[in-house]
Amino acid sequence: MDYYCPVSSEQPSEPKVDGRSLRAGRVRESNKSDIISSAAELLATHRGSSITVRMIAERAEVSIATVYNHFPGSTSEIFIEVGNRLINDAAELTAEVLEAEGPVAAAEFLPVAVCAGVVKLGAGCFDMITSRQVGGAAFFGEPDPETTMFNFLVASGLDPDHRTRDAARTIGYLVRGAIFAFASHATTDFESDIATTEDELMSVAGSAVRTSLGILGINWPPAD
What we know:
By secondary structure, this protein is mostly helical. The chain has nine helices and no strands. It has a domain at 75-215. Helix 1 (19-43) crosses helix 2. The longest helix is centred in the middle third of the chain and has 28 residues, at 74-101.
């Protein structure tokens, strides 16, 4: 005997969106962004050791408790995030160049974008670097720009071999060295014997790819 099982015509209801949770999430992300921005602004005018959680909270217009809720590790953890944002901003700008002008232009632009962020931090760059080293964060992010640079070089027409990988590393070393020199120089208000001013840093950044590949005897850009 066949049995008839009635099937309900009602469709399962969509889960309701909790408006309060969404608003709370947006407020939380906005507060975190304001905290990082405020820390970056303070780093541009103060040494990291003199910046307190209270100073960051007042500038971001949030409570001290809110800062600790986001960053239990205090200021050093915030400075690491300042570095992360610097790298992410450079990556986003480079992605726009890649889409508009191709891998050759993107490869040459990446060091410039990173160093432009460093220049904005001034002496604060030294404290950001130090915090990232202590915190175990990779200074140039993940993936590191050497990997990104290698991909740009290959996309531009260079062979994906060890020579091209060495070229990407050489570019990275050159840019890192210039940044570290600039950061150290900036902590003395540019009065030390290390002669790396903002203009010099940006000059190194602008010529990093061509200079490094020229040292290695690699034609750039590759012939079509």
